[in-house]
Design brief:
InterPro entries: Elp3/MiaA/NifB-like_rSAM (IPR006638), Methylthiotransferase_CS (IPR020612), rSAM (IPR007197), rSAM_horseshoe (IPR023404), rSAM_sf (IPR058240), UPF0313 (IPR022946), UPF0313_C (IPR024560), UPF0313_N (IPR013704)
Distance between the termini: 66 Å
Keywords: 4Fe-4S, Iron, Iron-sulfur, Metal-binding, S-adenosyl-L-methionine
Number of domains: 3
Cofactor: [4Fe-4S] cluster
Strand content: 5-15%
Number of helices: 27
Number of strands: 24
CATH superfamily of the largest domain: Cobalamin-binding domain
GO molecular function, one term: iron ion binding
Strand order of the largest sheet: 3-1-4-5-8-9-12-11-10
Helix content: 25-40%
Shape: globular
Pfam families: DUF3362, Radical_SAM_N
């Protein structure tokens, strides 16, 4: 591989700054991730935007916060400001499992090593900077800052925390994707506007003394939340706050939000309208090396980079609005799609990588099949305040035509250096079910899924119905499980038509608000009856800025303020989890006992069969549990006989 000059990357050291002939840095970025110069990594995107606006930028990646703090001082005082991000993940999600156990690896660190960033990294980094350079502005951003911009529940401390601006002592916060606010801020700074006068830039938040008047903007109305202190005293007020924040975050014509925190007022300016195709292309077309900085060569691979190295992101945003997901809270519900030209240009870059072997690992987005989707009449979208475009039903104004994606996939397939392009991102299967989505014009949904199944699946297609209980799914903002049955029937027909045998792998969540123990038992029974022997289930983790987390903490749904059951104790969570693994011998007696106590003997028969069947049954081999070499799920003899008898009875 040809050695690239070190100046192709943004500088990480003083020596690299000197190679560029710079005597001063305009902006220094402090990041909790290793520096990977690739458009999938926020630090690279922000750094390249700053560079594109004509500023001199340097990066401090994963500084040591425990020693003499030399990493924070190595570039000295920047001319304009420090930018701080915890990285591509909230640092607490990065560090801990749903059971609050410390993770042993970090996908965003060279060698996958843990321990290279602190808990609550944004707060730690910002406070250090304010102590060393009290007169230099600190701008915080990234997903950790974005999702903690107002009073929020922190699962790891098990308490409500104020806006991260308060604890971090930062001067300003950018929420959501930072491309638009950052460019506007940089252009104002270049004109000589002081940093402290940037208070009316959209998609930013600041803290001001209560005695100061709000910055004036005649185009904005202001809505006030219950204060942080009121939220601490009353969980219902905290829940009610969330509805306002979510609604305003998903509007084109949003209101400014304010919240009192002690003797200060949090001011959150409205978001920008969704990026245009030209704007998002500009961000993706910047001169990335698409590689980790050379300093990491001896420390080992960066797992998150290896995962996306040969993938292409087609769009940002997700209009699903799922209760447990932070994507729409950070990226927005409206889709910002790249042009076909920009995507194919990146494809050429990927195929020129000397390690490329002909396989694109993913061509997708937050949800793979939302590319180019938007409202048919955008005037209707401009007035909309719904957090989801597809729950409880698919909006009649939503254009769900999949033709652009199908055509793009075919162009990717036709590239002379591409052997196979996979869709690794999650597919919203409900958009492809005619009974649920009435907007299937000219059968383009069927054409799309057939293209995916026959050309872009690597043995398994993963989709996420998340649950089988309609009551739980309503809380999740997901469609009825009957739609998964309909999708599976369509999937199976395509497989049969093309003589294929690729597994369909459904993903589920346990312990989600609204899910009771019997709901998990029903889930296990229904999926077993469909022939699935599931190998993993995600345990719900409360993360800031989601409906599900508000319910978990407050006990009520923020839109109705009515109680919703949530499994919270370790035992309650483990009990739900065990039903998922009904086929494990060690769970059999426990399942039988729990279902007898619940007077659900019907589920005992469905899940573990009769005593006679169980004693005659041999444990499934490891190969049998995971499927045979062809990918086909082998059905145990006892289950095959039972199904045969049931079929005879029905006929």
């Amino acid at each position: 591989m040809e050695q690239r000059p070190i100046t192709d990357w943004l500088p990480l050291t003083k020596k690299e700054v000197e190679k560029r002939g710079w005597e001063e840095i305009d902006v220094v970025i402090i990041s909790g991730d290793a520096y990977v110069d690739h458009p999938a990594f926020g630090t690279a995107v922000i750094g390249r935007i700053i560079e594109d606006e004509g500023f001199r930028v340097a990066v401090v990646a994963q500084p040591n916060w425990k020693d003499d703090l030399r990493d924070f001082k190595k570039f000295g005082k920047p001319k304009y400001f420090f930018g701080v991000t915890a990285g591509c993940m909230d640092s607490m999600v990065n560090h801990y499992t749903a059971n609050k156990r410390l993770r042993s690896t970090d996908a965003y660190t060279a060698g996958g090593q843990s321990g290279f960033r602190p808990d609550y990294a944004t707060i730690v980094y910002s406070k250090i900077l304010k102590e060393i350079y009290p007169d230099v502005p600190v701008l915080i951003g990234g997903i950790e800052a974005s999702l903690r911009r107002v009073t929020h529940y922190d699962y790891w401390k098990d308490e409500l925390m104020p806006s991260i601006l308060k604890d971090s002592q930062a001067d300003m916060l950018v929420y959501g994707m930072g491309d638009q606010p950052l460019r506007d801020m940089l252009r104002l700074l270049k004109k000589g506007v002081p940093f402290e006068s940037l208070g009316t830039v959209k998609q930013t938040a600041v803290l001001r003394p209560n005695s100061e008047p709000l910055p004036k903007n005649k185009n904005w109305n202001t809505v006030e939340l219950a204060s942080h202190e009121e939220c601490l005293a009353d969980k219902l007020k905290y829940a009610a706050n969330f509805k306002i924040v979510e609604v305003e975050s998903n509007k084109w014509q949003a209101n400014r939000i304010i919240q009192k925190i002690g003797d200060q007022t949090l001011i959150i300016n409205p978001p920008y309208k969704t990026m245009t195709e030209k704007e998002i292309d500009t961000s993706f077309d910047l001169p990335y090396t698409r590689l980790p900085h050379p300093k990491y060569k001896k420390r080992g691979a960066i797992p998150a980079f290896d995962m996306i190295r040969f993938s292409i992101n087609m769009h940002r945003g997700c209009f699903g609005g799922c209760s447990f997901c932070t994507i729409s809270a950070h990226q927005g519900k409206f889709i910002a799609s790249r042009s076909e030209q920009s995507i194919l240009k990146e494809l050429d870059q990927v195929t020129e990588d000397p390690d490329f072997r002909g396989y694109i690992s993913d061509i997708g987005g937050p949800s793979a099949n939302m590319y180019k989707m938007k409202g048919k009449d955008e005037d209707i979208c401009a007035r909309c305040s719904s957090p989801s475009c597809i729950h409880p039903v698919i909006c009649s104004n939503l254009d769900t035509n999949h033709s652009d994606m199908t055509q793009l996939y075919r162009k990717v397939d036709a590239h002379p250096k591409v052997k196979k392009a996979f869709i690794g991102s999650g597919i919203r299967y409900d958009l492809l079910v005619d009974e649920f989505n009435k907007n299937n014009e000219d059968g383009n949904h069927d054409e799309y899924i057939e293209q995916v199944v026959t050309r872009h699946v690597s043995g398994r297609l993963k989709v996420a119905p998340e649950h089988t209980s309609d009551a739980t799914l309503r809380v999740m903002r997901k469609p009825s499980f009957k739609n998964f049955h309909a999708f599976k029937n369509k999937y199976d027909r395509i497989q049969k038509k093309h003589n294929m045998n690729q597994q369909l792998i459904p993903y589920f969540i346990s312990s989600h608000p609204g899910c009771e123990e019997q709901d998990m038992a029903n889930l296990a029974a229904e999926t077993k009856d469909m022939g699935f022997q599931l190998e993993q289930v995600q345990d719900f983790t409360p993360t800031p800025m989601t409906v599900a987390t508000v319910i978990y903490y407050s006990g009520v749904h923020p839109y109705t303020l009515k109680p919703v059951y949530t499994a919270k104790t370790r035992d309650q969570k483990q009990n739900q989890h065990k039903f998922f693994f009904w086929y494990k011998k060690e769970n059999r007696h426990w399942i039988k006992s729990r279902l007898e106590k619940a007077d659900r003997k019907d589920l005992i028969e469905k899940l573990i069969g009769s005593e006679e069947q169980f004693t005659q049954r041999k444990p499934a081999s490891k190969a049998n549990r995971k499927g045979n070499a062809s990918g086909k799920k082998e059905v145990p003899e006892w289950l095959a006989k039972r199904r045969k008898n049931e079929k005879k009875k029905r006929s």
